[in-house]
Amino acid sequence: MTSNKHPTNFALFCDCFSSLILHRLNLGIPKQQKRRSGKSRKNAVHSISEPALRGHDDGSESDAEELADFIEFLASEVFDILPPELKGLSYTDLQPGSQIGRKHALPALLRDVEAFVPNMPPSVTDSIEAYGLLSRSTDLSNLVSSIIKEYIATATAAPPIWSNTRASACEICDRGWIPLTYHHLIPKQIHEKALKRHWHDEWRLNSVAWLCRACHSFVHRLASNEELAKDLWTVDLLMSREEMRAWAKWVGRVRWKAR
Questions:
Q1: How many Cα atoms are found within 13 Å in the side-chain-facing hemisphere of 31?
Q2: For 68, 193, 227, 257, which has the most beta carbons within 10 A of its beta carbon?
Q3: What pLDDT, in 10s, does the model give residues 72-82?
Q4: Are 234 and 240 in contact, with CB atoms under 8 Å apart?
Q5: Residue 90 reports pLDDT greater than 70
Q6: Quick one: which of 114, 120, 105 has its CA closest to 156?
Q7: What residues are paired with 211 via a beta bridge?
Q8: What confidence score (pLDDT) does residue 50 get?
Q9: What is the pLDDT, as a whole number, of residue 38?
Q10: Angle 73-69-156 (CA atoms, 0-180°, nearest 5)?
Q11: What mean pLDDT is reported for the chain?
């Protein structure tokens, strides 16, 4: 597998895939649809049990491991057929002096994704459709396209100025082997209001927490930007919420095997 040649970027790609799928599962138990028949596509659907597809209120450790295997399978199937320049993509690669930077601009790479999506393996398309991981407003092309675009944007993002604060593990679920993102504990959109209403001193506005993508997404589903800024502006305050603790306990068991 070509994913073995780019372990860091593959881990990032898995993270982008997991964030979306865990979000879909957190909305409720997907309804399993009837699988397609036909000898040529007989083994296209990757099997996963219904308990493993349940939200974070249910499921054993083995179910979490099964879900992680399912996510890794889907991610590896797509990652292995990405164009070579996308597999090892980094911020440095898109700078003007680099080989890729001279050949491609980021908008061009994002446009190329639209042409790539129709060539996905049947194993991916059938598995996603069979387990009801599409919302009514999102078709398969848009779903996979959004994952790849998020991967590109994240892989090419400039290093944050807060890199010296980086934690060794997600500060919510404590997974230390997964790529981390920085979460503005006081969302940037609320900075002006936070100062005007004296919620925080200016020096505190740029404080961050280092979270995996799944936990980062959950935090923003847990509360509005204003509520985060007023009431949940530290990791301890976030973890004071019962919903956050339940999520952290569940998602901390979702692990895919090291390559």
A1: 4
A2: 68
A3: 988 998 898 88
A4: no
A5: yes
A6: 105
A7: 181
A8: 61
A9: 42
A10: 60
A11: 78
Beta carbons within 8 Å of 51's beta carbon, 6+ residues apart: 58, 59, 60, 63
Per-residue model confidence as pLDDT tens digits over 146-171? 888 888 888 887 766 665 677 889 99
* DSSP structural state of residue 212: E
In contact, 180 and 215? CB cutoff 8 Å: no
| Tokens describing residue 117 | 């999506």
Q: Which residues contact 142 (CB under 8 A, 6 or more apart)?
A: none
Nearest partner of 11 among 180, 164, 146, 179, judged by Cα: 179
Q: How far apart are CA 83 and CA 87, in angstroms?
A: 7
Can you tell me the distance from the alpha carbon of 116 to that of 110, in angstroms, rounded to the nearest whole number? 10
Structure-token match 């898109």, residue found:
94
174: left (phi over 0), alpha (psi -120 to 50) or beta: left
- What is the radius of gyration, based on Cα positions, of the chain? 19
How far from 99 is each of 87, 96, 182, 243, CA to CA, in Å? 15, 8, 29, 46
Reference 133, options 45, 257, 57, 215; nearest CA is 45
